[in-house]
Specification:
By secondary structure, this protein is α+β, with helices and mostly antiparallel strands.
Length: about 80
């Protein structure tokens, strides 16, 4: 489990953005993307956008990676 603290409300820039900028070997998906046999679903506020990305998947998808926010008073209560 990783912690990527959201910095913009739409999630386009977040805790992984500076890491990707610092290391050219990394890629941070900022839009729903089908790549490497997986569907990558970054944070989105609109459920319809995620549903559309799932419907639009064209290849054989073996895995789905998604960003989900947990809303609670104990979200960051675990040791980092």
């Amino acid at each position: 489990m990783g912690v990527a603290l959201q910095s913009t409300i739409g999630g386009l820039e977040h805790g992984l953005t500076p890491l990707a900028e610092a290391c050219g070997a990394l890629h941070v998906f900022d839009r729903p993307t089908e790549w490497g046999g997986a569907l990558w679903l970054p944070y989105r506020r609109q459920r319809a956008e995620l549903e559309a990305a799932i419907r639009a998947a064209t290849g054989p998808v073996k895995a789905v990676f998604g960003h989900a926010d947990v809303v609670s008073g104990h979200t960051l209560s675990f040791p980092l």
